[in-house]
Amino acid sequence: MKRDKGLLIVLSGPSGVGKGTVCGALRQHDTHIRYSVSATTRKPRQGEVDGVNYFFKSKEEFEHMIENNQLLEWAKYVDNYYGTPRKYVEDTIALGHDVILEIEVQGALQVRETFPEGVFIFLMPPSLKELRSRIENRGTETKDLIDSRMTVAQEEIELMDKYDYVVENDEVEAAVERIKSIVTAENCRKERLIDKYKQLVKE
Ligand SMILES: Nc1nc2c(ncn2[C@@H]2O[C@H](COP(=O)(O)OP(=O)(O)O)[C@@H](O)[C@H]2O)c(=O)[nH]1
Ligand SMILES: Nc1ncnc2c1ncn2[C@@H]1O[C@H](COP(=O)(O)OP(=O)(O)O)[C@@H](O)[C@H]1O
What we know:
Elements: E1 8-12, H1 19-28, E2 34-35, E3 39-40, E4 55-56, H2 59-67, E5 71-77, E6 80-85, H3 86-94, E7 99-102, H4 105-114, E8 119-124, H5 128-138, H6 143-158, E9 165-168, H7 172-187, H8 190-202
Parallel strand pairs: 1-7, 1-8, 2-7, 3-4, 8-9
Antiparallel strand pairs: 3-6, 5-6
Guanosine-5'-diphosphate (GDP) binds at residues 15-16, 19-20, 38, 42, 73, 75, 77, 82-84, 102-104, 106-107.
C-alpha cells in the first residue's frame, strides 16, 4: 500500500532484553520496514561493522554532528554518546516507507516531541534475573559494565509508561509477531488514511 508518509517506529528496552536480536529476526520477515543505523562513540564489538551495526565515531566527530543539527536525537548512555542521523529517517518517511529506530529511553522521549505521531514500543524481559543472564551470556561486557547497565535498566523500566505498547521478549518469534501486529494496526489508523480516502472519493 503506497502512503504519503511512512510510520516512525521506536523500539526501546533495557540493554540485553533482545532489541538487536528481535530487530534482526524482524528483518527476516518481509515487512518492508527500514532500519535506522545510529552513530555512537562506543567501540565496535567483535563482528560489528561500521555503517551496518553503527556508524562508529570519535567524541569530536559526534559532537560535530550535534552542533550541525545532523542528529534527530542523541543521548549519553553509560559513558558513550548514541544518536540517530536525521537525514535517513526524514527521507525514508517522506518516501512513504516505515522506519524503525532502536534507541534508549532518553532519546525516545526526544523523538516523541518531534514525532508525536510515531509508534513507541517498549521491549520487556520476562524478569530482571533473565535480563542479567542474557547480558552475561552475550559475553560482551565486563562485570562493572553489566552492573551499570542493570542500574540503567531499572530506571528505564520505570519510564515504560511513556510508551504506547509493551512487548515481552519471552520468545524471539513471538515478540516479532507482536511487533508486526502493532505495525499493521497502526498503519490502519484512520488518522493516517483519512486524507488519502477523502481524496479517492473526490476523484
Ligand atoms: N538515544 C539513542 N540510543 C541509542 C541509539 N542507538 C542505540 N541506542 C541505545 O543505546 C543503548 C546501548 O547500546 P549498545 O551499546 O549497542 O548495547 P546493547 O543495546 O546492549 O547491545 C541501547 O539501549 C540502545 O538501544 C541512538 O541512536 N540513540
Ligand atoms: N527471547 C530470547 N530468549 C533468550 N535469549 C534471548 C532472547 N532474545 C535475545 N536473547 C539473547 O540475549 C542477549 C542480548 O540480546 P541483544 O539482542 O544483544 O539485546 P539488546 O540489543 O537489547 O542489548 C543475546 O545473547 C541474545 O541472543
